Amino acid sequence: MSKGMFVAFDGPGGAGKSTTVAALAGLLAAAGTPVLATTQPSRAAIGQLARTSTRELGGLSLACLVTADRYHHLQNQIRPALADGHLVLCDRYTASSLVLQAGLDEVPEKFVRELNRFAEPPDLQVILTAPAEELRERLTARGSHGRFEDDPTTAAREVALYARVADQLSREGVLTEVVDTSPGVKKTVSHLAGLIRALWSQDRAAA
Q1: Of 30, 27, 5, 3, residue with least CA distance to 199
Q2: Neighbouring C-alpha atoms within 13 Å toward the C-beta of 206
Q3: Under 8 Å between Cβ of 150 and 37
């Protein structure tokens, strides 16, 4: 049974995660790569509860709910797709928990890490970012997707927190790529498609 590749995309609100994942999935699938594009919180019932409850829940309760959905999602979608040899592109993963739950909601980082101890690291961690002022403008134009995006001053904190998490993950041995999306979607997707294709080819050659 072939092994696929798992790529996680995280970053501040407004960085372009959903747009980038959708564009990459379309581009790579059109070239014949078996792709699963997915998201966390997932579209399952528990994920939808987590996604729509950020204004009612926070702290420990939201951290636990997000992680419960993550394990359900891993078991039912991500791991089976990887076992079938798919390239899995996931919009948000554990890096977001370290920023949103540990950083913004001030849940102890040690607790967040322990919750996620059995969530395997991605083969490639992508951190999408942009200058805080540009993120605020994008969020104003797009509208908030939840409590973490309600306050426009949060953008600068998220940028700093994701930079710290990216550094931590790199030092822990996770292949991490930080990409500034301010040059636009086309350049962002072109860069990432090249990187993912190279890694995908390496993995297939090694197999």
Answers
A1: 5
A2: 9
A3: no
- pLDDT score of 22: 98
Closest CA to 125 of 176, 172, 75, 56: 176
In angstroms, rounded to a whole number, what is the distance separating the alpha carbons of residues 32 and 100?
35
3-class SS string, 18-31: HHHHHHHHHHHHHC
How big is the chain, counted in residues? 207
Share of the chain above pLDDT 70, in %: 98
Which amino acid, residue 47? G
Alpha-carbon gap, residue 189 to 18, rounded angstroms: 12
**Is the whole model's pTM more than 0.85, yes or no?**
yes
- Closest alpha carbon to 181 in 190, 172, 171: 190
137-187 pLDDT, tens digit per residue, is 998 888 877 788 788 789 999 999 999 999 999 999 999 999 999 999 999
Cα 46-49-55 angle, rounded to 5 deg: 150
Residues in contact with 21: Cβ distance below 8 Å, sequence separation at least 6, in sequence order? 9, 37, 39, 89, 90, 91
Residues 123 and 177 sit within 8 Å (Cβ to Cβ) = no
